Amino acid sequence: MKNSNDFKFDLIFAFVIFAFVIIVITTYTSIYLFTQLTTKEFEDKIKIIAENIYKDYKTKENIIKNTTLALAKNDIFNSAFTPNTEILKSVFKTMLYANNELKQINYFNRYGKNIISCEKVENSIYCNNTNISLKVQNLKSDKELFFKENFKDKGIEFIAFSPVKIEKYPGFIEVKSFIKDLFRNNNLYHFIIIDKHGNILYSDLYHEKNLNDVFNFFLNKKILNTQNGFVTDEIYVKSLSDKIKVVFIQNKNLINKTNEISKTLTLIMIGISILFAVPLGIFFSKPLYSFYEELDKRVKEEIEKRQEKEQLLIAQSKLAALGEMLGNIAHQWRHPLTRLSLLIQNFELAASKNKLTPEFIEKFKEQANTQIQYMSQTIDDFTNFFKRDTKKVEFCPKEIIEEALKLIEGRLKQNKVEVELEFIKTEPITGYKSEFSQVILNIINNAIDALKERDIKNRKIWIRIDGKKIEIEDNAGGIPEEIKDKIFEPYFTTKFQSQGTGIGLYMSKVIINQHFNGKLYAYNSKNGAVFVIEL
To answer: Residue 522 is part of which domain span?
Structure first.
């Protein structure tokens, strides 16, 4: 048992551990909550961001479409004369200057040959003829407008075509726009722009060419099948058109950096907590130390009292065992003493009739020695049986039971008790032989006393051994229900005070439980009481 000084150290150490645990739990709870808040922030904001990008995208798309249609319907193409290139240049420059979204305007004749091309380069506009030609057969249609998107150079290129519908001088207007700032840098997310087949058109994070190279099959399929909405808590999909959609992915780098900072803070806080916990532990341990010191003192006193009580019980148990041993010796000596008495009477009778011949004296001597040796052997048997063991040994319960029955053979015969043995399976056990013998004798003697007290006619005791389970059963009618729970208590007995001490079964249970790590219990059968020893 720990002393008071050990307790003081344990208390200080407990304060340190407690502070350590609190700091770690608080820090990692904060990390978890921060991660959840960051994810929640992503869920709340990304829908707004995606919607704004979609609106911006559609706005720019509509601008270039409307511009293209407006140019195609302009009066300069409805003149009876061939469209003047200088006038076209002037109109195209005006449109490029007026609209920052526009990058280039081209006019092609009915055969697809470029007539004039004006392009905005930084803050200047250059107009000239180019060698660009269109495949007119691909544009012949009843459609009013042709439109497509290209992703390149970290931006989106919009290209719109519209036929100039005049009878004499038909042709085509081509308007181009290039947008770089649609996806602005944002610490909240990364993005991937894909087509309807999962090909990656552009990404600020991945360099792969297809979505299959980034995600697993099931997630990839889910992304392609989702038009607008969350695929997981960390992935949001927004369609910009029938052909293009954007995959927004929560930025984990920010969370990881925060976690690393939190872990560093945790180590710092652990050190601070230990520095504070030690003096706090010393301060708060003083009243608890005093309480424990007083408690320790009381516990030691109670342990001493209990040890004294147990020693008294052991001494009483030894005295009881000694009394039973003397009683059994008396039973064993009764017959040889009777025979010695008869031999002495015969000797006196022969002496009175002058028949003490050498042969008679020799025969008397032999018979007397035989009885005396039997009595001496009885003393030796009891002495060896109850000899105090100093160490545990391996022995067979069957042998102990047979020796015990031999020692109380006289008492069994005197009380006309029949014993039946049944050895189903025998296994050796390890322990103190004398203590186990004491348990067996206690139970058998109690059975004999019960049979005698209740005046049972056909008195029987059954002893069964099955491995490490031993059952001792009698036909005395069983244990009354009202005392069934008390029979193993110290000083409890149903016998007269002169016949029993009430510690036999108590000590037997202590021996089996503590020294053999087993169980001793009792129940009633149809015949009587059954005492079970499980080792």
So the answer is: 387-534
Least confident among 62-66, 235-239, 382-386: 382-386
Residue among 260, 242, 269 at smallest CA distance from 147 = 242
Q: Three-class SS of residue 419?
A: strand
Residues 6+ apart with CB under 8 A from 155: 178, 179, 180, 182
Note if the pTM is more than 0.70: no
Q: When comparing pLDDT for 503 and 128, which is higher?
A: 128
Distances in Å between the alpha carbon of 162 and those of 95, 107, 214, 245, 500?
Answer: 16, 10, 38, 25, 122
**What CATH number corresponds to the domain at position 153?**
3.30.450.20
CA distance 62 to 373: 129
Helices (H), 353-396: 358-385
Residue 441: name the closest of 508, 492, 513, 535 by CA.
Answer: 508
Per the CB < 8 A criterion, the answer to whether 213 and 187 are in contact is no
* List of E strands, 45-145: 102-109, 114-121, 124-128
Same domain for 76 and 164, yes or no, is: yes
- C-beta contacts of 93-96 below 8 A and 24+ residues apart: 93/118, 93/125, 93/127, 95/67, 95/71, 96/120, 96/125
Residue 143 to residue 440: CA distance in whole angstroms: 111
Pull the structure tokens for residue 430.
């390890």
- Beta 244-250 vs 235-239: how paired, if at all? antiparallel
Q: What is the C-alpha separation between 341 and 122, in angstroms, rounded?
A: 144
Residue 43 pLDDT: 81
- Residue at token pair 């341990």: 285
What whole-number distance in Å separates Cα of residue 208 and Cα of residue 289? Answer: 67
**φ/ψ of residue 221, rounded to 5:** -65, -40
Give the largest CA-CA distance in the chain: 186
Polymer length in residues for the chain: 535
Distance from C-alpha of 291 to C-alpha of 297, rounded to nearest angstrom: 10
Q: How many domains does the chain have?
A: 3
Q: Of 211, 226, 250, which residue sits at a domain end?
A: 250
Distance of CA 325 to the CA centre of its chain: 56
C-alpha to C-alpha distance for 190 and 194, rounded to whole angstroms: 13
Distance CA 508, CA 54 (A): 88
Residue where the block lists tokens 């004294």: 308
* Strands annotated E in 56-123: 102-109, 114-121
Tell me, yes or no, whether 322 lies in a domain.
Answer: no
**Strand, coil or helix: 162:** strand
d(CA 153, CA 140): 31
Per-residue pLDDT reduced to its tens digit, 156-197: 888 898 888 666 667 888 999 887 767 766 777 888 888 888
Query: What CATH number does residue 411 fall under?
Result: 3.30.565.10
Cα–chain center distance at 351: 93
The torsion angle over the Cα atoms of residues 472, 478, 484 and 489, rounded to 10 degrees, is: -50
pLDDT digits (tens, 9 = 90+) for 276-305: 666 665 666 666 666 667 777 787 777 777
